[in-house]
User: Fold these one by one.
Assistant:
Number 1:
Amino acid sequence: MLAEPVMTNIGIIHPDPGYWEKARELCDKYGTLLIIDETHTISAGPQGYAVLNGIKPDIFVIGKRTSVNSRAECLNTKYLGNV
């Protein structure tokens, strides 16, 4: 499942409470990766919206520059320790 943690193209629209917990549960149940695209929400707080709100993705995607030499980042959260 590939998704942005909140809708951002028409304002900031948060999902209903429990949405990400249920998404995580369904991905685990069916063996599907949960991929969170933080392109628009990475600036929501330290490590982005997902970490700030307790979302547990398998893969975390950042489509904006995070440093001078990077064009895009795709992080496997199993190696991030506190995610």
Number 2:
Amino acid sequence: MTISELLKCNPTVTKVFIKQKMLCVGCPAQAYHMIEDAARLYGFTEFDLLKSLQEAVQAGATDDKTGKEVENLKIGKKIKKKGDKRVSTKN
């Protein structure tokens, strides 16, 4: 999933990029960079960045106008631990 797709589907993740001082929001390359690319470029592990993004999606999973839960918010990946290695897999 590209950063652009992620931001379009889940605008609540914007705060993660801003908090981590990542310039992804508004960057012309967001249409091409994947989440893995952003993690690598900014020195984060993919696992840690995905975890932060998932937490932001879960925290923002209610519609501000109605207060109802918004369903099917996903960032396109599931994270699982494998031994000492952390790997991400597509849904």
Number 3:
Amino acid sequence: MTDLYLGNFPSFPLVIGWFTTNNIGSYKRAVALAAMYSIQGTATFLGAYTFLSKDAPRYIKGFSICLGAQGMALLFTLLYTASLWWENRQRDLGKREYLRSHPNPEELADRHVSS
């Protein structure tokens, strides 16, 4: 039930796609997906201690926690989007050109600028 209120259930396929698309390299992708599954799993665990029967029928504490979690998710999404926009802007301005001439591009991993 908490997954439904926290938005984990309907947004989970979107988040999986987002994580796999924005993480390059099998090791980094694996760690990112493991972290995402861990965070998603804690929401289910947290639900058992959030929606207590003594708070019935309105569950103000539980819904307040869910609303706060949604607010944090929105904030983190906006910060992540802004950081991606800034990095792409830096690349468009040519401030990452020095990465193209790196002697060993494999060392750069995600910082590598593709042609």
Number 4:
Amino acid sequence: MDKKMKLTLIIGIPVVIAVILTATLIWPGNLLGGGVTYEKYEQITYDMSYEEVAKILGKGTMESEAGDGESRIASYSWKGKEKNSRVIVVFYGDKMGSKSQLGLQ
């Protein structure tokens, strides 16, 4: 094996590993079986705080927020395990007021 081939392997293998790890973090539902399942969705109940919901579903992505304190309304989304599936949860004040899902199985 010549020097050029060794250098390509030494640099190429870590780059491929980094790309796979990055893809796993960015698209958790696509690799390694991550994402929210219908079973997890059913575990979240009204009047839960964001922290309680996040313990079950993982960290959500804030989609919108308005107001503050008791009048605060914030919506968060989570990617589902299935392709194009999603969970949306709306919090009123500190408590979950509504939840919806699309495509979970």
